[in-house]
DNA sequence: AACCAGTGCAACCGCTTCTTT
DNA sequence: TAAAGAAGCGGTTGCACTGGT
């Protein structure tokens, strides 16, 4: 059996106070991130290391964008979700200033409903040439699989074929889903080309 | 004004993955 | 190679807030 990451009876739970935020920010600014397990004690916080990490990553880290998602961000999330499934941290990694928790919450509270209203079942696979790119949250890429290098894109009247390395071919059949993707093994940069059906 | 239901989001939990020994 | 510990991740929960009655 693994030991718990902290003694629950000795730690605060629930919402963070300003003082706690300040202590955490100050400590990380001074010593940098890392060693979350020992951080609470060193920073004088009665919190679990996990809790500190979450608080820093999601709310205190500099450069975070707060507030409403833009239309371009929404589109990007929808497309990346179709491609990657519920891999929120990967999706958030493509949205500067957004966190995985924020993207996940936004998907669950806004985008899922929006898709349903549009007649798209977010749980059902987006059919891409008979190959599901995501199904019930499962991505077409396996969990340990690095994004493939996109080699070519062929466009036809109402679909496009994305040709990846290792002979992974994807045909998009959704008329309003026009992707211009550039994928590499180290980073996935995505440029979206809006060609919505008028 | 009080109550209730719905919603959104911050935080927690437990499992998985990664790293170190 | 295996085991143990740390970090990361996604699902879920709980609570504050809001709008309707």
TrEMBL record:
Molecular functions per Gene Ontology: transcription cis-regulatory region binding
Keyword field contains Nucleus: yes
Residue intervals of the Myb-like domain: 8-60, 61-111
GO biological process, one term: response to other organism
One GO cellular component, as annotated: nucleus
Keyword ATP-binding set for record: no
A Pfam family assignment: Myb_DNA-binding
UniProt keyword annotations, A-Z: DNA-binding, Nucleus, Repeat, Transcription, Transcription regulation
Domain HTH myb-type: 8-60, 61-115
Protein location: Nucleus
Cited InterPro entries: Myb_dom (IPR017930), Myb_TF_plants (IPR015495), SANT/Myb (IPR001005)
PANTHER family: TRANSCRIPTION FACTOR MYB8-RELATED-RELATED, TRANSCRIPTION REPRESSOR MYB6-LIKE
Subunit structure: Can form complexes with MYC2, MYC3 or MYC4.
UniProt name for this protein: Uncharacterized protein
Organism: Carya illinoinensis (Pecan)
């Amino acid at each position: 059996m693994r030991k718990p990451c902290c003694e629950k009876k000795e730690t605060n739970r629930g919402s963070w106070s300003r003082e706690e935020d300040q202590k955490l920010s100050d400590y990380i600014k001074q010593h940098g991130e890392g060693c979350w397990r020992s951080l609470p004690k060193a920073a004088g916080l009665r919190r679990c290391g996990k809790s500190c990490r979450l608080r820093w990553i999601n709310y205190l880290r500099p450069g975070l964008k707060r507030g409403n998602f833009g239309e371009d961000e929404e589109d990007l999330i929808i497309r990346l979700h179709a491609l990657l499934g519920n891999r929120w941290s990967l999706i958030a990694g493509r949205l500067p200033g957004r966190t995985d928790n924020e993207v996940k919450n936004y998907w669950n509270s806004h985008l899922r409903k929006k898709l349903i209203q549009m007649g798209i079942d977010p749980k059902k696979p987006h059919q891409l040439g008979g190959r599901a790119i995501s199904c019930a949250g499962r991505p077409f890429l396996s969990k340990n699989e690095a994004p493939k290098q996109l080699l070519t894109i062929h466009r036809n009247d109402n679909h496009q074929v994305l040709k990846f390395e290792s002979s992974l071919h994807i045909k998009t059949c959704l008329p309003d889903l026009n992707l211009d993707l550039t994928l590499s093994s180290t980073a996935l940069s995505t440029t979206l080309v809006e060609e919505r059906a008028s």
